[in-house]
C-alpha cells in the first residue's frame, strides 16, 4: 500500500506560518537560490489564494502545496514545484504569463500556461464525456501527451490527479 507523508497541517486553511513550516521541510534538499524561488511562488500564491477553494471545497493553496509535496518526493526541480504552486494564479487572472516569466523564468511561465490549457481541455472533456470510459481515458491520455510542451507538466497533472484520488 502506498502512503503519503505530509508536512502540511491537518487544518484546511493555511496561513503564512503554515507555509513557512512547509518550506522548512524542503530546505534540506534545496539550494538557497531554489528555496528563494519556491518561497516567492508560495508568497504570491498565498496572496492570491488566501480565500480560494477548489471545486472539492479544499483550500486552493493547500491543494497546490500537497501536489508540490508529491513532486518533491519525486525529486523534481524547483521550477516544477513553483509551477504547481502557481498553477491557478493565471486562471484567477491575478497575474499574466509575462509577469510570471519576469518573476520566475520562462520554464515556470510555460508550464503554468500548459497546465491552464490542459485544465480547460479536461473540463470540456468532462462536460462532454463519452459513453465509453476507455475511449474517454484514451482521449485524455492523448491530450496530455500532445498538449504539454514539457513532460514535467504531465507529471504535475498525474500527481494532481493521484492526490485527488487519495493515493
- How many helical stretches? 8
- In terms of DSSP E residues, the strand content is under 5%
**Cα-to-Cα separation, first versus last residue:** 9 Å
Tell me the major beta sheet: none
Mean pLDDT: 79
Number of strands: 0
Number of domains: 1
Explain what this protein looks like in three dimensions.
- The protein is mainly alpha-helical and 167 residues long.
- The chain has helices at residues 16-26, 32-49, 60-73, 78-86, 97-104, 106-127, 133-147, 151-165.
- The protein is globular and about 45 Å long.
- The model has no long low-confidence stretch (mean pLDDT 79).
Put the structure in a nutshell.
With 167 residues, this protein is an all-alpha fold. It is built from eight helices and no strands.
Features:
single chain; 167 residues; mainly alpha; Hypothetical protein af1432; globular
Topology:
Blueprint: H1 16-26, H2 32-49, H3 60-73, H4 78-86, H5 97-104, H6 106-127, H7 133-147, H8 151-165
